[in-house]
Design a protein that fits this description.
globular, 13 helices, alpha/beta, eight-stranded mixed beta sheet
């Protein structure tokens, strides 16, 4: 078992280097991952249930960011392959991959990695689990016996998909025929789409209809990652079946369904000021919090997480103390400043807005230090059981808003960052946070309603704002003529 996870936003100006990756040896994976709601948890626990010995050997993971340097990928590739080779003898290999990595000079590093691992495996079964935001290629799939994508966004099925991968690999080890894997593509860039309701749920039901057909093993909609300027970025459908015809026809059915229903995936956008005004209006009759998510500054898609537009709008709304809270802003300098001053101190800060000029200017204000922490907690919903370490964190009161500040980048998954600083989110009228969909796994059940703010940052859902220089294809919704024949 080995892993390589990076979602590359090619519009990020800074490259991703080796120090940006957390590289764990297999012993650490084996100690940390069991029982967690992750692909790794599914891999390890399912193997043990089947009486197999799980042998994690290596993983390299980084928070989504810019293009990976060639030297960085070369190092990770060599370390991963060396670790697999050193694990001989083995019966099968399971890979935990993202599918949307981009390396300088290589738009499809997962294909390269799968091909290299196939060279080590020979005829032994090789399987992989991908994030549904992967930009996959048929050339990569051709190296695999098992290829599965997450079905849910928020990704609450990661453990289940890891378990299914191990089940299918075990069947191959026992002599079951190798599946045919087909990837159908559509000329679409999909705005962020959750799968709990609406168009996303309907698309998954289309996949379920295919899976009910004889011979079909799995059918998954791959939403793709639109913030990658290359020709693998699009919506695709991954289908596995007992023969080529079933795999291809199943994938193409769902791909055509997506194209026919594409207008159902259009999203509307609110500016930060409009989103805050809407949240305040809704809160007047709400008995639970209103959540405002800042989708365009989502570290989970490559944005810096230090944007200030939504926070500034909350502060300027003049809400009473204790009414609103915001979690969280990435600013290690301010976090260190708060720790040096101590709880109860009033400090002058220039908060956020340090990464680039795209996500707002720093908020310059006097701030009261309400609480300090080491930034450690355990996830409660998505990735349940996984440990988080954002290092030094602080809670500051700025203009009536209680603002959590972190020393590491990450999107907001649950209330851990608030709870760590003595904040019970259920008592607040308005909760601001930086995430696109993953926050819903925890916050949707406790929220009266959710309002999305889009200020036009690096993960904005306004896809027409991202100029595609390398990729010259006609893609919906950027081009109304997408999908039309040109011959």
């Amino acid at each position: 078992m080995a892993g390589f996870n990076h979602e590359t936003n090619t519009y990020c100006p800074a490259p991703t280097v080796l120090d940006d990756f957390v590289r764990w040896p297999g012993t650490k994976v084996l100690a940390e991952a069991p029982k967690t709601a992750t692909v790794w948890g599914g891999f390890i626990d399912r193997a043990r249930t089947l009486g197999a010995e799980p042998v994690p050997v290596y993983t390299a993971d980084a928070v989504p960011s810019g293009t990976i340097t060639a030297d960085t990928y070369a190092t990770i590739r060599a370390e991963l392959l060396t670790a697999i080779a050193a694990a001989e003898p083995f019966d099968a290999v399971a890979l935990n991959l993202h599918g949307a990595a981009v390396v300088d000079g290589n738009d499809d590093p997962e294909r390269d990695l799968c091909e290299a691992v196939r060279g080590l495996c020979g005829d032994r079964p090789l399987g992989a689990v991908f994030d549904l935001h992967g930009n996959l290629s048929q050339a990569m799939c051709d190296h695999l016996d098992v290829a599965l994508g997450f079905r849910s966004y928020p990704h609450v099925d990661t453990r289940a998909r890891g378990e299914e991968c191990i089940d299918l690999l075990a069947r191959r080890v026992r002599g079951e025929q190798r599946a045919s894997i087909y990837l159908a593509t559509t000329p679409m860039l999909l705005p962020s789409t959750d799968t709990n309701s609406g168009a996303g749920a309907a698309a998954n039901r289309a996949c379920e209809r295919v899976e009910a057909l004889p011979g079909v093993i799995d059918c998954t909609l791959m939403h793709g990652f639109p913030y990658a300027d290359h020709e693998l970025a699009n919506v695709s459908v991954l289908c596995s079946a007992v023969d080529d015809f079933a795999a291809r026809s199943g994938a193409e059915y769902v791909a055509k369904w997506m194209w026919v229903h594409r207008d159902n995936f259009v999203v509307t956008h609110r500016t930060p000021a409009d989103a805050v005004a809407e949240a305040i209006a809704r809160s007047q009759s709400a008995d639970r919090p209103i959540v405002v998510n800042e989708t365009d500054d989502n570290p989970g898609g490559g944005a810096p997480g230090d944007g200030t537009r939504l926070l500034r709008a909350l502060i300027e709304a003049g809400l009473p103390d204790g009414t609103a809270t915001f979690g969280f802003v990435w600013d290690p300098e301010v976090a260190a400043q708060a720790h040096a001053a101590g709880v109860g101190a009033v400090i002058d800060v220039a908060l956020g807005g340090k990464h680039d000029g795209l996500h707002g200017e720093p908020i310059r204000a006097s701030a009261e230090v309400l609480a300090l922490s080491d930034g450690r907690w355990v996830l409660k919903a998505m990735g349940k059981g996984s440990r988080v370490n954002l290092r030094a964190m602080a809670c500051l009161r700025i203009g009536g808003v209680d603002v959590v500040v972190s020393s590491r980048r990450q999107q907001t998954f649950d209330d851990g960052c608030f709870e760590l600083h003595g904040i019970d989110v259920t008592t607040r009228r308005i909760i601001g946070l930086k995430s696109t969909k993953h926050f819903r796994a925890f916050f949707e059940p406790i929220a009266f309603s959710i309002v999305t703010s889009d200020g036009g940052g690096l993960t904005s859902e306004r896809l027409d704002a991202f100029r595609r220089r390398r990729d010259r294809r006609r893609l919906w919704p950027l081009d109304d003529t997408a999908g039309q024949r040109t011959d």
